Amino acid sequence: MKNIDNYDFKNKKVIVRVDFNVPLNDNFEITDDTRMRAALPTIQKIREGGGSVILMSHLGRPKNGPEDKFSLKHLIDHLSDQLGTKVLFADNCIGESAKELSSKLNAGDVLLLENLRFYKEETKGDKAFASKLAELADVYVNDAFGTAHRAHASTAIIAEFFPVEKLFGYIMANEIANIDKVVKEGKKPKTAILGGAKVSGKIEIINHLLDKVDNLIIGGGMMFTFIKALGGNVGDSLVEVDLIDTAKAAMAKAKELNVNFYIPKDAIIADKFDNEANTKMSPAGEIPDGWMGLDIGEETISEYKGIIANSSTILWNGPMGVFEMSSFEKGTSEVAHALANATANGTFTLIGGGDSVAAINKYNLKDKVSYVSTGGGAMLEYIEGKALPGIVAIRGE
Ligand code: AMP
Which ligand 1 atom lies nearest to the CA of residue 220? Predict the structure, then answer.
């Protein structure tokens, strides 16, 4: 398959879907350019290969057509500095100005198109709109993993107009390769650590991972639905009563598949949802009324650390407790540090999903784990085994 490393970009106009949905302050200055910097290797690779680059992205959520605060023009100067070239700008992503500017591009030039979502056709996946974007270029590159689970005009539909000349950029290729290392390949023993508030958000992942992992570790608020399903008392902890049967079914499936399913043995309980609450340690299934579990306990932490140390491949999604509050962050912090130690000893560790990424950053461990996925919703859907339109559009599966 063609990829960005072996493709000959010489004299090609390349339209690249990037994720430049960066936060801006009231003066329209970029406050965090992580997403922009992440796309630079793809852009530079095309330029160095003798191609010209047409960048398209969304920014914010414009409701009804163009809005100055969502204009991509605010990104021109910073992007020009980052790329070391004066970036050209088309104030409409389709139409005459975009056509005119793209037709005049020389090797190495970069043209940024105005916000795609100024047209409602973008999120609707409109074919005529996608064809107008496609007209501007010879090659299509998708490097916006964060929107790969959407069948938008620029993320999927446009690919129909490039039967052959379509590729993943580096971000897309890396995300897919790293998630595949856990889901499709990966050395055993494999462990998935799933936490976060609710079972409802994670049940599809749990079910999909059960035939792929050796150990499935549960933490966070969702542990209490499992504990309740086992007949425990969870006091005032977070429970999704309507998912108790689903939780039972997941545990039964784990047993059938010989997967070790770990549910916390103890918890830190509090008399209110507050950092200053009174707290104590409790067996996880014996929580008195008036108390709620907000973190995993010591015995659980040490058991989980042992499993982490003995795994060769690990996926972590979701905090073990209310890690935003210092009184309830120990479980999450200890798991994060155990993952860093395991990585140093050769384990492949993938961290994904908003709150586990926030936790890894909070403990400054970003560079001490194997890969931190920026995909959020797209990553979770990929792990759930769903076909992502942005991936299917390029590689056909
Ligand atoms: P999610 O978005 O589903 O990954 O959930 C992340 C949120 O779950 C974080 O904001 C945590 O504070 C919260 N959380 C983790 N453990 C608990 C718990 N035991 N009770 C309530 N909320 C929790």
Answer: 16
Strand locations in the chain (E): 13-17, 52-56, 88-90, 110-113, 139-142, 166-168, 190-194, 215-218, 233-234, 260-262, 266-270, 279-283, 286-287, 292-296, 313-317, 348-351, 371-372
Asked if residue 367 has pLDDT above 70, the reply is: yes
Question: Is 366 a residue whose pLDDT tops 70?
Answer: yes
Mutate to test the pocket of ligand 1, among 355, 360, 362 (most ligand atoms within 8 A of CB): 355
In the CATH scheme, what is the homologous superfamily, with its name and number, of domain 176-383? Phosphoglycerate kinase, N-terminal domain (3.40.50.1260)
For the domain with range 13-168, which CATH number is right: 3.40.50.1260, 3.40.50.620, 3.10.20.310, 1.20.1640.10?
3.40.50.1260
Q: Range(s) for CATH 3.40.50.1260 in the chain?
A: 13-168, 176-383
Confidence of residue 357 (pLDDT cuts 50, 70, 90): confident
Residue 1 has pLDDT above 70, yes or no: no
* pTM listed for this prediction: 0.87
Ligand 1 atom nearest residue 201's Cα = 3
Check 2, 201, 377, 386 and give the catalytic one. 377
